[in-house]
Write the structure tokens for this entry.
Amino acid sequence: MDLKELFYSSLLGNVRPVREIIEKDHRGLLNTPLRHFLSFKDAVKKNVEVYKLSTEVIRERNISDEFYFAISTADLSGGFGVNSSLFYPTLYMLCNDSQRKRWCKDVIDGRLVGAYAQTEMRHGSDVQSLQTTATFDPQTSSFILNTPKLSDSKFWPGGMGITCTHILTHARTYINGKYHGIQTFMLQIRDPKTFQTLDGIEVGDIGEKLGFRSVDNGYLRFNNVRVPWDQLLMRYFEIDEKGNVLTEDSQNAKFGYGGMLNLRNQIVRYVLIHYAWAAFWSYDIIKNQENIDKTFVTNRYIHRTAHVITYTFLTVQLRALHSQFMNALAVNDLSTAILHSQFMNALAVNDLSTAKVLLVDLHLMSAGYKSLGTWDAIRLCREALSESAQAGLYVTERPFGYVGMVPTATYEGDNSVLLQQLSRVLIRYIEILMKGKQIKGVGASFNIYAKNVQEREELPTFDLETEALTFDSIEKLLRDIAFKNIAVNAEKFMMMMGESDMTTVWNEKMQNDLVYMSKVYLYYQAYQYSLTYYKSVQSKVESSANKLVSNLLLLDGLNSVKELYNLGTILGMIKGKKAYERLVGEIQRLEDALRPHAEEIRKSVMSENQEMGFTTGFDSKVIEEEGKTVHQETEKTQKAFAMQFLKMSKL
């Protein structure tokens, strides 16, 4: 396996063959900077073309519906992406057997297109605060759905504005006067032939927003909408037509959250791709310019590539395969040895105790790396705009890439809130060790510190000036820093809890500390994950590629140590009078070793320049022609605004 094969097999897993089909036979599905010149109407039409083509390829070539994983790299699926990444997995996980037979095949075959209508205008994704109601009517054996207030409208779901025919929605459920929590319903909102809205439903597109130019994000209100009783998803909460509750398993119902985690994991890869596009575009456009410091430009590119490689290997541990990802995956396919498949396999054999642990891990890791990954992508996409005068041109893809990345810090969970959720569990790890118990799941690597916690024994200090810097030593140092930082903050948190209430401590006094604590932990976990995967495939990789990958992983590990150097020193984890000089020297040594191979690495990673934005060879006449429609619409808008402004100002 050469470097290119290692990279793509890690990034795409077993959907790599589908990606090759796109590159060879359906290049129209690849991203193109010319999409900037599509109006919203034309962008939606393009989404429909992509969806139709994808379903045809699935049927004709007998390819699983994992096809969407491949086209997600092209970012052309628009609202239809939610159909496969969130709607279908949630539907499958929460349906009982008869409901799966009723709906799931229609989704895979393209006869039913769905959206995930959870988020409400006032409550966001805080599920327990949702206000949409579903009240059972025993006379008609149906639920009546209502939106109490305008602020309780479903707001933002992708694909709901125009394209979907069905939705999964969450509502406060009342049966025979008793409240049964937030339950999930499957219902039709549009006629699949005419796309006319059904009675009692007000739905439409929310209009312009930051990013998501090609996605029809929607709003929706219910006004006495009747839903048959058997469209309540019943795997964990089952009733009969009279409203008698047959099964009510509130603990296991949370497995339906796996659909959201599926989407969050895709976001990790999505923003990694945009990070890589920005990094490689910047290098490609600048490297041949005159009067530049080529060593600096190449070194910057190498550091960014090292980060891409680490996160690519990380995605192997996080990646979720949609639709048929529920099926057992090949044991010998290392690219699919992932947390999400373990979770789904545990559910398949009804191993609920294992599934619960994996669900927590999957939430923590997807939330953590969604946060870290989106912030990294936002930062780099912005930096790329300042690194070349050409970056501001639409055709370069850079402005669109930046605008598309900015809202990722907020949607599907605000980054700071998600990292606070992770910090809550990290503090709990310390409490578990203090009680003499073992941590289960992803935090099990901290069990080695049980004695340090129980007997308050200090961790050994790493002599950065003299000790060897290897994969294992760097991983251990990052783990020690992460754990010591968690222990210090846990102690601080517990002391403050004796002086104030939980809300004040959590949101006012320690919020920044807790968010940073989670980030430090994620630096360690990312490196640990990437090394675990790399070591599992190392014997299959060509020696020349192994040398490059090893140096890139070492470089990224040392960059993490450099990032945490001050913290490590303050915590007493790093010593050595010339420790920092030694660290910088090792980084420079790796730069020198990798710089002669910069072009070799570039050709092996993200080879489709079209997707990153044109750097050379684009025809200005083509761009001018493609842009006519949008320019005309812009001129109309500007004229309308000017006239309105004149009226308002009484000029």
